[in-house]
Amino acid sequence: MVLGGTGQGKTTFLNFLANVVEATASLNGVANCRKFNEKGIENKIKGKMSSKTSDARTYTIKIGYVTLTIIDTPGFGDTRGTQTDDANFKRIKEAVLEEGGINCICVV
Fold first, then answer.
1. Domain count within the chain
2. Across the 108 residues of the chain, what is the mean pLDDT of every consecutive 10-residue run?
C-alpha cells in the first residue's frame, strides 16, 4: 500500500515502479509506459498540490518473476476538508479488507 499526504507523489511513485523494469530493459526508452492516474477517479482540480486521487485503487504490477498487488490511496490532508479525509480513510480500510490484508506500507 502506498500512503502519504496530498500532492506528495504517491501515484507518481507507482508509475515509476510500474515502468522501471521496462525502462531499464529497453534501449530506446519506454515503449509501453503504464500510467495509473485514472482520470475517472481523479478530481478536476488543476492545482499541483490539490487532491487528485479520490479512491483507494488496487493495481497489479509484474516485476521480473514477482507479481505485486499495490493499493494506491487518496492523500491525507485532503484539500477538500476533514470530511473528505474521513471518507478517504474508510475507502482505504475497505480496500485493505478486500485484499485480505497488507504486507508492506510505503510512505511517500
1. 1
2. 89 80 57 54 48 76 82 87 89 92 91
The 8 Å CB, 24+ separation contacts for 56-62 are 56/88, 56/91, 56/92, 56/94, 56/95, 57/95, 58/95, 58/98, 58/99, 59/14, 59/18, 61/17, 61/18
- Write out the H or E segment, with its range, that includes residue 97: helix 82-99
**Distance (Å, rounded) from C-alpha 96 to C-alpha 15?**
20
Q: Helices H, strands E: what count in the chain?
A: 2, 4
- Containing domain of residue 19, as a range? 2-107
